[in-house]
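Tokens as discussed.
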């Protein structure tokens, strides 16, 4: 069997850190098995679409170095890869379920549905559709559907157990009696997420479904749709959420969450992927610095934890510093380009970059740390140069002797300067 996985974001905003962790795990799983990775855009919820979101997804993934085989701009045997361009396919499948007696037309107005819900809440009952249209004779329903606004609902059985053996969470079961007759096709002809995702995963021959655990609650609905079509259900893995320090799902209230923000702040894609891989997964060793190639070699879905992993910005800073120090001087200078003024002398930048490489946490810190080397005159408060235990005259003497050391040091290296400054410090004590 060919291994085929998909990453299917909704274009409702910028690419989020949690989404990146999910696609990284999909990518690693596919690469380990010489499989195919697909990018599919799930835009059935038209009201939540954000202009430019697809560009953000592409830009973020390209910056991270994540690649895929099929997608909206890459094409492939199952194009198009944007759900809003696949409407006839979903409508045909909804019609198929109606013809099989597995789905039905529902003509209930929003007002009626709201009243049903209100009455159920008043009786402290489970709120769900009351199947008012379920037993309309098929011929009558088909005739009404030609002129009346309607949706298509799935006929959910009254009893039975639905179950999966999740690759992360293990065995999970649901009772069919707790699931309402869900909407498959909306009145505007657009599918709901549940119909579209099942139809697309089957049509695109997806062999394994790996997504965030927030979709676990939707699994029984999907299982019922698979059953209605008579299709096999692919193995599923629902990876835990990335959590903030407060244990809640990572969001903007915890700070930066969009990939573009981390790029602007001077984080390396290698560091971001390295750290993200470890949020919810453990290699079982004390090693923690891994390239993507390393991760392809050692990552295992069986080691992904069922509990959410906490996001720690300080840990990310540590990983970023490690990866900055792994860069060659030429590569460091290249990566610094967007973070330093264009007028700075690049030959000079190449000389001084190694001096700050050991203490940088992000590339954005570079300008502040070395800006004084690229100006003709420094503006500063002279009083700040006088330490608490020295007076003005002693400070001037110390600075004068420091100038001599810096001017005549040969070679001008840290190793050569250190003993000279240690001797000066001892003499000044």
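Sequence:
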């Amino acid at each position: 069997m060919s291994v085929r996985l998909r990453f299917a974001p909704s274009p409702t905003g910028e690419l989020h850190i949690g989404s990146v962790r999910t696609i990284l795990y999909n990518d690693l799983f596919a690469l380990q098995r010489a499989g195919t990775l697909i990018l599919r855009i799930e835009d059935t919820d038209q009201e939540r679409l954000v202009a430019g979101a697809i560009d953000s997804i592409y830009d973020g993934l390209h910056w991270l170095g994540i690649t895929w085989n099929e997608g909206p701009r890459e094409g492939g045997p199952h194009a198009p890869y944007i759900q809003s361009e696949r409407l006839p396919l979903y409508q045909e499948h909804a019609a198929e379920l109606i013809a099989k007696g597995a789905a039905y037309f529902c003509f209930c107005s929003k007002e009626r549905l709201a009243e049903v819900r209100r009455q159920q809440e008043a009786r402290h009952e489970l709120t769900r559709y009351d199947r008012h249209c379920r037993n309309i004779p098929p011929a009558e329903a088909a005739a009404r559907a030609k002129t009346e606004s309607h949706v298509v609902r799935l006929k959910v059985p009254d009893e039975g157990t639905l179950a999966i053996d999740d690759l992360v969470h293990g065995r999970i079961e649901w009772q069919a009696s707790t699931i309402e007759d869900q909407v498959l096709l909306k009145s505007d002809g657009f599918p709901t997420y549940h119909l579209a995702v099942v139809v697309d995963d089957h049509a695109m021959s997806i062999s394994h479904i790996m997504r965030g655990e927030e979709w676990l609650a939707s699994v029984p609905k999907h299982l019922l749709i698979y059953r209605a079509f008579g299709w096999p259900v692919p193995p599923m893995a629902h990876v835990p959420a990335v959590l903030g320090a407060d244990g809640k799902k990572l969001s903007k209230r915890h700070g930066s969450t969009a990939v573009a923000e981390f790029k602007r702040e001077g984080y390396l894609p290698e560091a971001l992927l390295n750290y993200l891989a470890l949020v919810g997964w453990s290699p079982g060793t004390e090693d923690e610095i891994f390239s993507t190639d390393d991760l392809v070699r050692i990552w295992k879905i069986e080691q992904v934890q069922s509990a959410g992993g906490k996001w720690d910005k300080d840990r990310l800073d540590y990983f970023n510093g490690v990866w900055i120090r792994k860069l060659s001087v030429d590569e460091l200078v290249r990566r610094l380009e967007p973070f330093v003024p264009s007028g700075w002398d690049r030959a000079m930048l190449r000389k001084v970059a190694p001096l700050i490489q050991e203490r940088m946490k992000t590339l954005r810190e570079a300008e502040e740390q070395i800006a004084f080397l690229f100006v003709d005159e420094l503006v500063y408060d002279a009083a700040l140069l006088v330490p608490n235990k020295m007076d003005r005259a002693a400070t001037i003497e110390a600075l004068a002797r420091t100038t001599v050391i810096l001017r005549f040091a040969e070679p001008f290296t840290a190793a050569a300067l250190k003993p000279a400054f240690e001797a000066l410090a001892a003499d000044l004590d």
